[in-house]
Amino acid sequence: MSLILAIESSCDEMSISILKDKREILCNVVASQIDTHRLFGGVVPEIASRMHVECVSTVLKTALKEANVDMNDIDAIAVTKGPGLVGSLHVGMQAAKTLALAYHKPFIGVHHIAGHIYANDLVEDIQYPCLCLVVSGGHSELVYMKHEFSFEVIGQTLDDAIGEAYDKVGRVLHLPYPGGPVIDKMAKDGKCVYELPLPLNDDSYNFSFSGLKSAVINFCHNASQRGETIVPEDLACSFQSVALEVLVSKTIKAAKDYGVKQIIVAGGVSANAGLRNKLTKESSIPALFPPMKYCTDNAAMIASAARVMFEHQKFSSLDLSVKPSYDLEEESIEV
Ligand code: KG4
Ligand code: ZN
Fold first, then answer.
1. Any idea which ligand is nearest the CA of 273?
2. What's the pTM value of the predicted model, to 2 decimals?
3. pLDDT digits 0-9 by tens, 260-283
């Protein structure tokens, strides 16, 4: 039995979760700053870290109350060590170190993407070997996992991450930040009538989304110069169908090439309804998605990854520093 308290503060959410054993989530408090950052059309790092400082104690108190546990009952303190915004990461890191030091608890630094991946373990046991499609605001990667907590990055984006491309297209369409969930909804009501280029449609497992994003921007610019009206739902649908085509086809190809038992999807874009439908329909290998509330940043996913690290006694020392960019492969646990 284990009781892990995890803190996630890598971007604009301050979240604290307490996880009992493998998947009993006693609390998952998320203080989102999205309404503030929406005024600026994106996350302002300086504001994000300041707001984390203001709310971290309240989030902790709320979490302990909701879970009905005492700090002395906790077995380990986990925290996102990176990647993410340096100022934001520091707030969670200092809070976690303070708790670990004051209550004499083991301390676990968790890679943010390992957290996103292990959000899937909160649903059912991940079947290894598996292939993970990581799709978030900062990442688009294909990760081969031969066994538990082993990470081999076999493909990645050469430029923009998919979530970033969604958000930039959202900005062109004057949608509220973040554009991803809005485009996903709009795409359902649109038709794929606008022709956009299929990005990096080659034999590699890599992605590229900046060309597609630029094609959308140019398309809007040209239409406006010609005085033509664009149907936003149709553009959302056209953009999404091209983006998903390349994501899904490369994922299925890699899954077959590596002979995996399961495909898992991780990161904020795993909430995308189009992606869920397309991958489930087109893949003969079973696909697993995190529950909707654990797709975007939250501490339950960090606790889930930390639970595996706790079992393997993979602890960090209290001089651990945050790492704004971080190699996932370094995190692998050898068996
Ligand atoms: O994983 P996440 O919460 O933060 C990062 O680690 O980056 O992902 C946030 C990203 C944003 O770009 C957001 O637009 C995107 O996930 N996102 C979506 C959807 N929900 C969130 N993109 C497409 N469709 C969605 N339903
Ligand atoms: Zn994330």
1. 1
2. 0.97
3. 999 999 999 999 999 999 999 999
Q: With H, G, I as helix, E, B as strand and everything else as coil, classify residue 9.
A: coil
The residue whose C-alpha atom lies closest to atom 3 belonging to ligand 1 is: 296
Q: Taking a C-beta distance cutoff of 8 angstroms, is the pair 18, 27 a contact?
A: yes
The verdict on the CB of residue 181 being under 6 Å from ligand 1 is: yes
Spell 103-124 as b/e; 16+ CB within 10 A means b: eebbbbbbbbbbbbbbbbbbee
68 CA → ligand 2 middle, Å:
27
Ligand 1 atom at shortest distance from the alpha carbon of 167: 14
Helix (H) or strand (E) holding 240: helix 232-257
Residue type at 45? P
The minimum-distance atom of ligand 1 relative to the CA of 273 is 26
Closest CA to 170 of 190, 150, 187, 147: 187
What number is the average pLDDT over the span 156-177?
96
Decide: 115 and 9 in contact? Cβ < 8 Å.
no
Contacts of 154 (CB under 8 A, 6+ apart): 142, 143, 144, 205, 254, 258
pLDDT tens, residue by residue, 270-326: 999 999 999 999 999 999 999 999 999 999 999 999 999 999 999 999 999 998 888
Starting at the edge strand found earlier in the chain, the sheet holding 24-32 runs 24-32, 13-20, 3-8, 76-82, 107-111
Counted residue by residue, the chain has a size of 335
* DSSP string covering 296-329: SS-HHHHHHHHHHHHHTT----TT----SS--GG
Sign of CA dihedral 249, 250, 256, 261: negative
d(CA 59, CA 63): 6
Question: What per-residue confidence (pLDDT) applies to 335?
Answer: 80
**302 close to 9: Cβ distance less than 8 angstroms:** no
